[in-house]
Amino acid sequence: MKLYYAPYSCSLSPLIVANEAGIALELERVDIRQAPHRVGEGEAFAAINPKDYVPALRLNDGGLLTEGLAIVLYLADRAPASGLAPASDSAQRYRLLEWLAFIGSELHKSYSPWLFHPELGETAQQAVRAKLAARLALVEQALADGPYLLGERFGVADAYAFTVIGWSKLTGVELSGFPRLRDYLERIAARPSVREAVRAHGMAVAAAA
Ligand SMILES: N[C@@H](CCC(=O)N[C@@H](CS)C(=O)NCC(=O)O)C(=O)O
C-alpha cells in the first residue's frame, strides 16, 4: 500500500498507525504548498486524488481510500491483534468514532486551515483560538480517566490527536494550562513507532510542549 503524505500535515497519523500495526507503507510525498499540488516529479495530485488533499492511501486492490478517519480504521482493522481500534461490534467502537469525529471536526479543522493562514484575519483567528481552548479543555478532562483517550491502551484516536494537537507549537496555541495533555503528547512522542513515523514523515518537531 502507498500513502500519499505531506510533511507537517495530518498524514502523520496514518503513518503512526501503520507503524504500530506493523504494516509497511510505501510513501509518496505530495507538495501541498504549491498550487496545483504536485507529486514527485510534477504530476498533478488532483489527477490521483480529486479531493486534492492528503492523506490518501492506495490500496493493494488499486482503489484509493481518502479521509484520515477511514484510513486509520482501515489500517487498524488489518491488524486486529494490535488493539489499535476496538472490534466493530463493541460499545467501545462507538467511543472511538466519537473521538475521531471530535478530533476531525472540532480540532483538526480549527487548527487547519485557520491558524496556518494569518491572512484569513485576526477576528477569525481569535474566534478559533477561543474555540480550541474550550475543546482542548475537554481532552484534558478526558485524560483524567486514563493515559489514552480510550483508557489504558494507545489507539488510532491517540495517533490522530497527537498529530493535530502537535501543531500547537507551530501555531502558537497555548497548552501550559493543560498539564495532562502535555504529558500525553510527550508520552506518545516517546513511542518508537511514533518516533519512526515522525522521522519518515519529515516532521522534525511533533510534540507541542
Ligand atoms: N477531511 C480530510 C482533510 C485532510 C486535510 O485537511 N489535509 C490537509 C493537510 S492536514 C491538506 O492536504 N491540505 C491541502 C489543501 O487542502 O489544499 C481528512 O480528514 O483527511
TrEMBL record:
<protein>
    <submittedName>
        <fullName>Glutathione S-transferase</fullName>
    </submittedName>
</protein>
<dbReference type="InterPro" id="IPR036249">
    <property type="entry name" value="Thioredoxin-like_sf"/>
</dbReference>
<dbReference type="InterPro" id="IPR004045">
    <property type="entry name" value="Glutathione_S-Trfase_N"/>
</dbReference>
<dbReference type="InterPro" id="IPR040079">
    <property type="entry name" value="Glutathione_S-Trfase"/>
</dbReference>
<feature type="domain" description="GST C-terminal">
    <location>
        <begin position="89"/>
        <end position="209"/>
    </location>
</feature>
<dbReference type="InterPro" id="IPR036282">
    <property type="entry name" value="Glutathione-S-Trfase_C_sf"/>
</dbReference>
<dbReference type="GO" id="GO:0016740">
    <property type="term" value="F:transferase activity"/>
</dbReference>
<dbReference type="InterPro" id="IPR010987">
    <property type="entry name" value="Glutathione-S-Trfase_C-like"/>
</dbReference>
<dbReference type="Pfam" id="PF13417">
    <property type="entry name" value="GST_N_3"/>
</dbReference>
<keyword id="KW-0808">Transferase</keyword>
<dbReference type="Pfam" id="PF13410">
    <property type="entry name" value="GST_C_2"/>
</dbReference>
<feature type="domain" description="GST N-terminal">
    <location>
        <begin position="1"/>
        <end position="83"/>
    </location>
</feature>
